[in-house]
Design goal:
It contains 30 helices and eleven strands. It is of the alpha/beta class and 634 residues long.
Length: 634
């Protein structure tokens, strides 16, 4: 019988979803009639075997015995191929054809073991994964086997070849799947604890228990285990077990033990300056401590290592797993480095090259805006903001511009506003208001701002700025306030209500005459006066304050509230609904309305009860109601 080229060996138990998702990745290999797929089922109760039969007839059953290596060795015993390929149900093969090309070539005769890349995904959604190489293909010489009951280790022979274009996507520890993580933690941690009872000084099992606790979210326990593993290291073992430094640094950093992170990273980098994760954590710990120069140096070192990742000697060891080479980590590192470089005028220009490494669209455009502000490249800001079709990305860029533009000197700031005023849109129009040269031009631009655009979707910060200008120009807040919803008007007024503006608000409210039948005008007056009163009361109105100073404003607040409420709700139903209203301001005004009606009818007792009820609805106004209303019915 002709010997097959490749035996793919897999053991499974209740893996129907994974088999359904990932077995198809083996199809390019299985099309070759010199390739066999061996699946050993260790006690499935789901449809694992039925799905497996769609891909192979070589399915065997063996009861699970809590020993990974013995089960793995059983699958190997069924293999007749020249090469054995070990793969799990939760792994997806990428570029299987490339693997066949190597096996068909003459160079395969020079090696006994083939290592391929593995991407260990933590979360599917955000593409977060660690990378490592793993020995997965072994010459079938009847001597190859696995050892270790928990984390089974292959006992392979050299020479070894590394394939960089063939890899596995491993989805066995997806943290979004809580049930999966709990199941795996319970299984693995219990087996590890049993082994550690037999041999408490086993460094590898301590390391793996730290990993298990970490994946389970028990970071403190994980840190204690990795410290124990580190303490057991002898000097001669440190190079071979360098991976302990990576997990130690990671856990120390997560727990914000920044000095410990720095110390362990420095020690590990003395053993191998290629350990990219340690450069990442070292830079990040320095950055967190505000040690900007050191952080910059080590982030740059991180990217130097990243650029030659495939050539790193350390990466050829299957013991090493890199957690900080995925897209998200690169993005975070590049984002932080750009921030650091932009703080140094000499180095700022170099930030541009790192911005290109940021894959997240929001973060990338945020850093581009900062960079263009620092470089005074205002036209680029304008083009970047107005050419993007993604409204949320545009919002991020505008917010970034607004946040960082004030560092510019006044002449440069005006140049920026001038550039941003070009074109049509609400942000352009805000900048037209900013650069208006005459009073009439500014007033006309403010009126156009309110009449031309949908203010419901306008950022509140824009409205705050424009309302501040309205206040400064002594234009009518109430007139412009009619253009906004109640909530937005109150919010905007509360944002600009401060000790510098409070008298301006008071003057406007006092000098404005109510329009008895104008619902929208009364609504705006009611909201603005409510905001003013709220500020006065909450900023510390004392018993010694002359409360009569607020009498006219409070009366007008109540009167405008009557008009507002009677237009908003059906008057006949007010007595039915007002006690169930969630808006305490509305409930307060309705109680005051009922009290006023009874007072006019001469029913002082009834009026008094409703005034008391009004106070219960809005206790902030207790003193005002007692002074101006309750006293007159007693």
């Amino acid at each position: 019988m002709r010997k097959l080229k490749l035996s793919i060996c897999m053991m499974v138990k209740n893996e129907e979803e994974n088999l359904k998702n990932y077995l198809p990745s083996l199809t390019p290999l299985l099309k070759d009639n010199m390739v066999e797929l061996i699946i050993v089922d260790t006690g499935s109760t789901d449809k694992s075997k039925e799905i497996a039969f769609e891909f192979t007839s070589k399915i065997y059953e063996k009861q699970w015995n809590n020993d990974f290596s013995s089960m793995r060795n059983y699958t190997i015993s069924k293999a007749v191929g020249e090469w054995i390929f070990i793969i799990d149900a939760d792994e997806q093969l990428v570029n299987g054809v490339g693997l066949l090309d190597v096996l068909d070539s003459s160079k395969s005769k020079k090696f006994n073991t083939i290592q391929i890349g593995v991407r260990n995904f933590s979360y599917k959604k955000n593409n977060l994964y660690s990378t490592m190489v793993s020995p997965r293909l072994f010459r079938n010489d009847n001597e190859f086997k696995y050892d270790g009951s928990v984390h089974n280790q292959p006992k392979f022979k050299t020479p070894i070849i590394n394939l960089t274009d063939v890899y596995l996507n491993h989805y066995g520890y997806i943290r979004d799947d809580e049930q999966l993580m709990e199941r795996k933690f319970n299984r693995t941690s219990q087996l590890l604890k049993v082994e550690l009872e037999k041999n408490p000084n086993n460094i590898y099992y301590r390391f793996q228990l730290a990993q298990s606790y970490g994946l389970h979210g028990e970071t403190e326990k994980a840190f204690e285990q990795i410290k124990m593993a580190y303490s057991l290291l002898k000097d001669k073992e440190k190079t071979a077990k360098l991976y302990i430094y990576g997990v130690y640094a990671k856990l120390a950093y997560v727990l914000e033990k920044n000095e410990q992170t720095i110390d362990i990273c420095k020690e590990g980098l003395e053993i191998s300056e290629e350990y990219i994760d340690l450069s990442y954590y070292l830079a990040s710990a320095y950055e967190r401590l505000g040690m900007e120069q050191e952080a910059t140096i080590h982030f740059i070192k991180y990217f130097e290592l990243l650029n030659r990742l495939e050539q790193l000697e350390i990466g050829k060891s299957s013991a090493m797993e890199f957690h900080k080479t995925d897209e998200r980590s690169v993005t975070v590192a590049a984002y932080k480095l750009v921030d650091l470089l932009l703080k140094d005028p000499v180095k700022a220009k170099s930030g541009e090259s790192y911005i290109s490494l940021i894959k997240d669209e929001y973060f990338k455009n945020e850093q581009l805006i900062k960079y263009f502000i620092e470089m005074k490249e205002f036209q680029n800001i304008n083009e970047l903001i107005y050419k993007t079709e993604n409204n949320k990305v545009r919002e991020v860029m505008i917010n970034t511009t607004e946040k960082h533009k004030d560092k510019l000197p006044s002449d440069k700031l005006r140049n920026l506003h001038q550039e941003l005023s070009k074109g049509e849109g609400i942000y352009q129009h805000l900048n037209k208001i900013r650069i208006s040269k005459t009073l009439n031009e500014k007033i006309n631009n403010i009126r156009l701002f309110f009449n031309k655009y949908n203010l419901r979707t306008t950022p509140s910060t824009f409205l705050e700025e424009v309302f501040q200008k309205i206040l400064d120009l002594d234009l009518s807040l109430i007139d412009f306030g009619t253009k906004l919803s109640d909530d937005m008007l109150f919010f905007v007024c509360s944002k600009i209500m401060n000790k510098d503006n409070v008298d301006k608000f008071r003057t406007q409210i006092m000098e404005t005459e109510l329009k008895e039948h104008d619902y929208n005008f009364n609504r705006a007056y009611f909201v603005i006066s409510s905001c003013y009163l709220s500020y006065i009361i909450n900023s510390g109105m004392t018993e010694e304050d002359n409360i009569s100073n607020y009498k006219q404003i409070f009366f007008n607040y109540i009167k405008s509230g009557y008009v507002y409420i009677l237009n908003l709700y059906q008057e006949k139903k007010l007595r039915i609904i007002y006690k169930t209203l969630g808006n305490k301001e509305h409930a307060f005004i309705i109680s005051m309305l009922f009290a006023n009606q009874l007072e006019e009818m001469g029913n002082k007792r009834g009026a008094l009860n409703y005034y008391k009820e009004a106070i219960e609805n809005h206790s902030d106004y207790r003193r005002l109601v007692k002074e101006f209303y309750i006293k007159r019915v007693l």
